[in-house]
């Protein structure tokens, strides 16, 4: 059986696009377009696994010389550095907009403002504390490695689902340019996410995480529609952060 070289090249380009979009890894490729992002959503979980592995490696090295808490803090810091705080920025902007604006237009304007408000600061603090605390509570290096890979891989696997379910709230920006991803790409992302959950957390915890993530997606989708009538890149960042936290907390079980 022969493998189509063009197919392999297209899949390689998708993987590069997902890494370029979701991380700050130095890749020799131009800036990714909205259309490229839409094609690459199936590879989002793989990009997440790469981020999780980087965080796990930092924890393994730090844990040799430091207690669990500072090692966990350094691990989270490493994942924030490799993603350029992309999702943290989205979480802060979303909570500022949803919490501070009165109308849809005000909320979207606040979300586009680069300044951070009280809602954003509190959301970031809680996100970092919960992630560091969960990793530190796991303690054992092997448990941390699997939890980080699961959390980062699965949190990015749910992004295509959210993009598919909700229309863009703006008539410009990368989310609008990407549009709704293709059904088969979303299905592949979900399949990869399920594999990551099963492999890293096992069947029982994987099912618990899956149920909680489904609830989270439904609640955040309802909130986004109620607040801004759709989703934006910032909202997707917030979804990733919540998904990451959910998986890490489930891993404690």
Question: What can you tell me about this protein's structure?
Answer:
The chain has 253 residues and is an all-alpha fold. The chain has one domain (35-251). 79% of the residues lie in helices and 0% in strands. The longest helix is centred in the last third of the chain and has 46 residues, at 183-228. The protein is globular, with a radius of gyration of 18 Å.
Largest sheet, in brief, is: none
Q: Summarize the helix and strand pattern as letters.
A: HHHHHHHHHHH
**Assembly type of the shown chains?**
single chain
Mean pLDDT reading: 93
What's the shape? globular
Taking Cα atoms only, what radius of gyration do you get, to the nearest Å?
18 Å
**Head-to-tail CA distance between termini:** 44 Å
Number of domains: 1
**Class by helix and strand content?**
mainly alpha
Proportion in β-strands? under 5%
What is the β-strand count? 0
Count of helices? 11
Uncertain runs are none
Question: How do the strands and helices of this protein lay out in sequence?
Answer:
Layout: H1 5-22, H2 34-40, H3 44-63, H4 68-83, H5 86-100, H6 104-112, H7 118-138, H8 141-165, H9 174-178, H10 183-228, H11 233-251
Features:
11 helices, globular, 253 residues, mainly alpha
Structure summary:
By secondary structure, this protein is an all-alpha fold.
């Amino acid at each position: 059986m022969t493998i189509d070289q063009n197919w392999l090249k297209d899949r390689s380009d998708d993987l590069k696009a997902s890494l370029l979009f979701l991380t700050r890894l130095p890749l020799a490729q131009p800036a990714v377009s909205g259309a490229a992002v839409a094609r690459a959503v199936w590879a989002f979980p793989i990009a997440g696994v790469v981020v999780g592995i980087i965080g796990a490696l930092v924890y393994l090295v730090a844990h040799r010389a430091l207690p669990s808490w500072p090692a966990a803090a350094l691990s989270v810091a490493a994942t924030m550095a490799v993603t350029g705080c992309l999702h943290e920025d989205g979480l802060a902007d979303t909570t500022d907009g949803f919490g501070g604006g009165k109308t849809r237009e005000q909320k979207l304007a606040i979300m586009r403002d680069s300044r951070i408000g009280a809602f954003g600061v509190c959301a970031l603090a809680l996100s970092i504390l919960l992630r560091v605390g969960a990793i530190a509570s796991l303690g054992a290096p092997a448990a941390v490695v699997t939890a980080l890979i699961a959390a980062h891989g699965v949190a990015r696997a749910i992004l295509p689902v959210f993009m598919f379910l909700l229309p863009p709230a703006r008539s410009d920006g990368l989310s609008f340019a990407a549009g709704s991803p293709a059904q088969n790409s979303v299905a592949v992302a979900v399949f990869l996410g399920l594999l990551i959950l099963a492999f890293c957390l096992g069947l029982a915890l994987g099912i618990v995480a899956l149920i909680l993530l489904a609830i989270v997606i439904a609640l955040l989708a309802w909130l986004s529609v109620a607040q801004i009538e759709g989703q934006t890149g910032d909202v997707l960042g917030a979804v990733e952060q919540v998904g990451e936290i959910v998986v890490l907390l489930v891993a404690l079980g």
